[in-house]
Amino acid sequence: MKILFVSPEGLPYSKTGGLADVVQALPKALVEMGHEVAVLLPRYRENQIRSTLIASVTVALGDRLRFPAIGEGQAVEGVRYFFVDDPAFFDRAQLYGDQKGDYPDNAERFAEFSRAAIELVKRVWMPDVIHCHDWQSALVPVLLRTQHADDPAVQALPVVLTIHNLGYQGLFPQTDLRRIGLPDRMFTMDSLEFYGKVNFLKGGLIYADYLTTVSRRYAKEIQTPEYGCGLEGVIRNRGERLVGILNGVDYAVWSPEKDTLIAQPYSAKDLSGKKICKKDLLAAFGLREEDLERPLVGIVSRFADQKGFDLIAEISDELMKEDVAIVALGTGQPEYEKLFQKLGEKYSGRVGVKIGYDNGLAHKIEAGADLFLMPSRYEPCGLNQIYSLRYGTVPVVRATGGLDDTIENYNLRTQQGTGFKFQEYDGESLLECIRAALKTYHEPKAWRALQAHGMARDFSWRSSAKEYAVLYKMAKQARIQRTAKSSK
After folding, report:
1. Which residues share a beta bridge with 82?
2. Which of 135, 295, 306, 314 has the CB geometry, 3.0–4.6 Å to 200, for a possible disulfide?
3. Using CA atoms, how far apart are residues 455 and 295, in angstroms rounded to an integer?
4. Is residue 12 reached through a cis peptide bond, with omega within 30 degrees of 0 on the bond before it?
5. pLDDT for 183-202, tens place per residue?
6. Where are the alpha helices (DSSP H) in 59-215?
7. Strands of 193-194's sheet, edge to edge?
8. Eight-class DSSP state of 326
9. Where are the alpha helices (DSSP H) in 321-419?
10. What is the pLDDT of residues 291-318, one digit of tens each?
11. Distance of CA 392 to the CA centre of its chain
12. Rounded to two decimals, what is the model's pTM?
């Protein structure tokens, strides 16, 4: 089967979050199964790689014409890469916005990207199925089923849309509808209208053949008012076409036995290298190496309310009374960046923070920390808790979304489990959970068994890729049947 991924980001070329990891690893796993896979990305400033011009296309945005180029880069591990190249839209310092907020022309940027994707399949590379990711490519199914509905070249082309985080929907003023070349008649409750705004993701949810999200628990959660972000009704209406498929992990990249970015490789059979990695991590953050036996808590995250940083702020001083050290890597809401900087000043030598993202440092944290903290308000899947399991770094998580699906709560009596979970979203519950983890940390035999259980878990992409392959066939069959009905 030929599969085209349409995504706003993807490694090894661009990344702001876990979506980029998925768009690198899932295509590779599908290629290993024998499928033919290509990925379409915007050509951002940060991925100014060499590409060969293969098409110049004309895209209508309202009463204006734009002329993006489509280039093809070098294949990576059997996956072809295409790029939409329009410097005015994509040659910018960041992918989606700057310090002032989202770029004001994001609607036009990603409308052009979606229209260029359709031109790619019509003129260059026709797949059996298109797999879109998040709101930035959600207009692809909208355009195919409306403005291209009578085009025999793409009538029977199915679209799968994956929701990586329902909290990001692509909301724009009504006036942007004409600017992106869509008629006013689509500004209705059963199409793109959402509380007086245009909602890209809502359109994708309505018009895609199948919907997926990145864990089974999250697929259930987003059908409820608590997690549905206002779209729970739309999602429930598509419930028969919604599937939760857990994200996998590329263990060729995230494994302490093979990791070239950490100070010393190690394995479940020989954990001695982990202590060397901890010493290296303390040094990387300028923390005291003589505190090697003190439990070290690692954080790699977007600093945001969604990620539970309001809870961390609430308990920070109480947590530091537990005689822990903390290293945090990330960027996000200024108040949380300042929080860790102030903690570093108040608890000198015990709290280290690096603002930004550093892939090498992220690997060092996974390898060198003792515990990994993810107290998310909601978490569609999460990858770092899965990385942590393989590195013998025990996750402390809230029981939501993919965190609940992937982490088995540790039972001291039976000594079964892979991490520590708390249910209620409040600071006291988080603090109690961390204290339970620390109590086990100070029981070396139980802690080693806990690490071993986690390191033995397998979340490779193989099984998830098989589920996607089945879903692609279902989407193709559903689209064929739908097209046959409409032609009668």
Report:
1. 40, 72
2. 135
3. 19
4. yes
5. 999 999 999 999 999 999 99
6. 87-90, 106-123, 139-145, 176-179, 200-207
7. 171-173, 197-199, 193-194
8. E
9. 334-346, 359-368, 384-390, 401-406
10. 788 999 999 998 999 999 999 999 999 9
11. 22
12. 0.89
Q: Which domains does the chain have, with CATH numbers?
A: 2-248+462-487 (3.40.50.2000), 272-458 (3.40.50.2000)
Q: What are phi and psi of 113, to 5 degrees?
A: -60, -45
CB of 203 closer than 8 Å to CB of 170: no
* Mean pLDDT score of the chain: 95
**Numbers of helices and strands, H then E, in the chain:** 17, 22
Cα–Cα distance measured from residue 158 to residue 468, given in angstroms and rounded to the nearest whole number:
14
Residue 215 structure tokens: 């864990």
> Quick one: pLDDT at residue 18?
84
Are the CB atoms for 396 and 295 separated by under 8 Å? Answer: no
CA dist 75 → 36, 48, 160, 314 (Å): 12, 15, 23, 47
State the amino acid at position 321 in one-letter form: K
What's the confidence (pLDDT) of residue 98?
87
Q: Which residue has the tokens 């700057």?
A: 98
With 0-12 CB in 10 A as exposed, 13-18 as middle and 19+ as buried, what is 487? exposed
For residues 448 and 457, what is the distance between their CA atoms, to the nearest angstrom?
A: 15
Q: How many CA atoms lie within 13 A of 276 on its CB side?
A: 11
- Distance from CA of residue 306 to its chain's centroid? 14
Largest separation between any pair of C-alpha atoms in the chain: 77
List, in sequence order, every residue forming a beta bridge with 42; answer none if it has no partner.
84
Q: Which two tokens stand for residue 147?
A: 């403005």
- Tokens 């199915």 found at: 158
Token pair of 123, please? 């003129």
Q: Is the pLDDT of residue 68 over 80?
A: yes
Q: Amino acid identity of 86?
A: D
Tokens of 109: 């940027």
Q: What are 383's two structure tokens?
A: 């990858």
